[in-house]
Structure formats: structure tokens, C-alpha cells
Amino acid sequence: MNEVEAVKNRDTIKLISYLLERHFGQQMADVWNIGLNLALRISDLLAIKFSDIDGDRLSIIEQKTGKRASIKLNPKTLALIEAIHQRHPEHIYLFQSHRSSQAKDRQAPAKPLTRRAVAKAFAFVGDDIKLALGTHSMRKTRGYHLYQACKDIGRVMRMLRHQSEAVTLRYIGITQQQIDKDFVELEI
């Protein structure tokens, strides 16, 4: 598995959303845009049910850690979720597989999009724009931009629910060279 990157340029973030919608439809663009705002692992993002959302708060048990995550939803995320719910009021999952909807006639249970489908779409767009893009890119991108805004690695670590600052720095792509640059540029 190749290492994927945080998307560091905001225009590139918007371009990715546009390309996902153009090539794969609104649902895949919604995965990207909501994923950026929730910073969840892909397995947790795809498993979100509308019933996990209460007002402006998402509450789930993370699959990897078994820990409860309670996330306050920002206005952009709330608007995206509401638009999805209006388009598909019968869906159980936020990102419900359309194949699952078609299987409704056969009494098959609803299922979310697969990680594989999302990874394939992201890899296609990443190849197009020459960026190592994958399912972790959303989470890494959110962490990177929060770090750039606050320079508080402890805060980023808590948002990503990591156990160590070193893991978080490596995860969001902050290198020793960038840390050195911060020390040189900030004179007090």
C-alpha cells in the first residue's frame, strides 16, 4: 500500500471535490467533503448512519479503537448531510451504496459504500492531478490544516485521537525540515 498525502493547497482540495463529482458523481464528492470535516478513518466514515446524528452532533464508536467519538458538526457538514438526507430520505447510511438500494427489491439489507470503491475513485483523481490520494487523505488533510492554523500538535493529536505527538506529526506530513523552518521564521 502506498503512503498517501495530506492535501496542503486549498485550491487542490476544491479541485479534488470537483473531479470526484465529475467522474464519480455527487456521492463521492460528498464523501470527500464530509470526510475532510470529520477527520474519521474511512471505515468509521462509511459506517455512519443517519441515526448516529443528533442535531449538530455525530456520535459513533470507532471501529479501530472501540472508543466513543462525539463530534460537533460544523455548518458546512450539516448542510451536506441535510442535502443527502433530502435526496435519499429512505437511506439508513449517510453514504449508502446505490447497489444496496437496487437490491431492495430482493429484501437485501442496506449497505454503505465500500472502502474499495472510495479508494478506487480517490486513486483515479490522484493520478489525474499527480498526488498520492487515498482514503486517509481526508483525515490527514484536516489534521494538516488544523496544525497550520494553530501550531498546536496536542490539539491536532486530540482531534485525530492519536496516542503520541510523533505519530500525529508523521501522519499529517510535518517533517523536521518544516519544524526547523518554523523555528527560523518565528523570532521573538
TrEMBL record:
Lineage: Bacteria, Pseudomonadati, Pseudomonadota, Gammaproteobacteria, Alteromonadales
Organism whose genome encodes this protein: Shewanella oneidensis (strain ATCC 700550 / JCM 31522 / CIP 106686 / LMG 19005 / NCIMB 14063 / MR-1)
Family matches, as InterPro entries: DNA_brk_join_enz (IPR011010), Integrase-like_cat_sf (IPR013762), Integrase_catalytic (IPR002104), Tyrosine_recombinase_XerCD (IPR050090)
Biological-process GO terms, alphabetical: chromosome segregation; DNA recombination
Protein name in UniProt: Site-specific recombinase phage integrase family
A molecular-function term among this protein's GO annotations: DNA binding
A family per Pfam: Phage_integrase
Keywords assigned by UniProt, alphabetized: DNA integration, DNA recombination
Chain coiled-coil ranges: none
Residue ranges annotated for the Tyr recombinase domain, each copy included: 2-184
